[in-house]
Amino acid sequence: MEINKNLNKLASLLLAKSIKDLYPDALLGESKINEDGFAYSFKFNEKNIGANDFNKIKKQMQKNIDRAYAIKYESMSKDELLKVIANDKYKCELINDSKEDSISVCKFGSDFIDLCENLKIEKLSSIKAIDLVNVSGYYWKGSSENEQLLMIHGMAFESSNALEEFKKQLAEHAERDHRKIGKDLEIFTFDDIIGQGLPIWLPNGEAIKYEIESYVLKTLRFNNYHIVSTPVLGSKRLYETSGHWDHYRENMFSPVEIDNETLVLRPMTCPHHLTVYKSSPKSYRDLPYRIGELAVLHRYEASGGLIGLERVRQLQLIDTHTICSPDQVKAEIKNCYKIIKEMYATFGIAIHAIDLSLHDPKNKEKFFDNPKMWKDAEKQLRSALKTLKVDYREVVGEAAFYGPKIDFQVKTNLGKIITVSTIQLDFLLPERFKLQYKDSDGQIKQPIMIHLGTIGTLERWISVLLEQTKGILPLWLSPNQVDIILVDNNKHKKYGEKIALALRKHGIRVYVDNSDERLSKKIFYAQTHKIPYQIVIGDNEVENKTISYREYGKQESNNIKLPAFIKILKNRIKAKN
Ligand code: ZN
């Protein structure tokens, strides 16, 4: 369910008018609309407004709705408008920022006026249901160097049913939030003493990550990728050569000086992999030369932009690069595409959209300046997508500085569209690093490079996985696959440990619950931690040398011999379901 943006825009103006009615000294900031509703920032003079004041504000909003004001949309000259709004200094700033001479405004009541395009809504009474959600601090224009204002957030709907429906959806969002799931299931944490945006993988998270890494690396080896390991640091010279120093520095950590060397934490592995390629002379027989690595990378993200695992400063990426001859590009891109699709299918992750991200010829700063290179590379990707019959959109200005890319977009729990996987075509780095190969005709030629991020960073992938599954992971990815619950800690300990050892011998992750809690509490723990199999061990099981198990989400319990149980698990793990 999506909110009606025009209606919410109008509701934000209604809020501004109502605040002015109640607190005539309050200064108006700006109105914002997003997927969750509307928001408006204010500077209050006498006191700070909190959620306690919401009822009073909502009453005033309703009063204004009941007054059935007609809404007028018109345009005014900048000067005229500045005179009318002279007391609102923030508003004046916004008006002065505008490059237009005439400004669209919206008027209602005897004196209310605000910046607004024509919303095509004629009556305030079109707003049938309204709620104020919370209030937060807001730096004017989003910059921490500016004054702090208060932002009131709310939502508006055409009917009270729609409001209730939306509230339900928000609750569902909260349940799917990977930050909440990560905390509840003890998957990851952050600690300021370690540093902002640096994820700490707890044992459960490490188990999930290990399974994903193993699967991706195995798939790459199967596709004839050479797996390497290269340093997390690179010299400043390396990034000057690659062009990252000129085009990507704002995303990199500051360099460190050591023994006359200037080193930087690497934001990606491309330049490192080029040195792998160059470590020995290559001929056409070596191409395509595919390199892969499970790499730890560091990228600077503003502290305000850090979101759980979705946006972090240290990330792990199974980064790959293929170096090939021009006539191999198309087949390689098709192969990359096939690998990505297979991985999404294995994890059951939904692709929201596929974008062909092109450069912006006007932006000479962001993109390497070589029109012919861009034209060729963009043509190649477009043609590969057409042959693959992919439904895609073209987006200008989203390419990497060195070349165009195919981006796989996923929708997050909060409805944001994020790029997860990419295939990038690059003519630039091979030139900068003077890559060569000896062709079949004996000539020395320059190869082309393809960057492939199959599932993107492990952090982002796991955040998406947790949100799309609500944390109910398939057996092969579950951190604890079996929870052994002892009816009596002393009496059943020996048999329980024997079972655990036998399962571990088969690579199955087992948790033995030997806490002093009551049996019902132990079963509750296994359920809330979404552990796929619970085994309960009591006198019967010890005596008959069996186990009783129950699958997550099912009611019935089964009593079988251990080898039969191991067989069920191993088959499911192998099938990755
Ligand atoms: Zn790369």
Structural class: alpha+beta
Distance from N terminus to C terminus (CA atoms, Å) equals 30 Å
Query: What's the tally of helices?
Result: 18
Overall geometry comes to globular
Query: From the structure provided, what is the oligomeric state, counting identical versus distinct chains?
Result: single chain
* Order of strands in the sheet with most strands: 10-14-15-22-19-18-16-17
Task: Estimate what percentage of residues fall within beta strands.
Answer: 25-35%
Strand count = 27
Structure description:
It is a single chain. It is globular and about 80 Å long. The strands form seven sheets. It has an eight-stranded mixed beta sheet, sandwiched between helices. It has a five-stranded mixed beta sheet with strand order 24-23-25-26-27, with helices on both faces. The protein has a four-stranded antiparallel beta sheet with strand order 1-2-7-6. The protein has 18 helices and 27 strands. It is of the alpha+beta class. Bound molecules: zinc ion. The site of zinc ion has 5 residues, from strand 15.
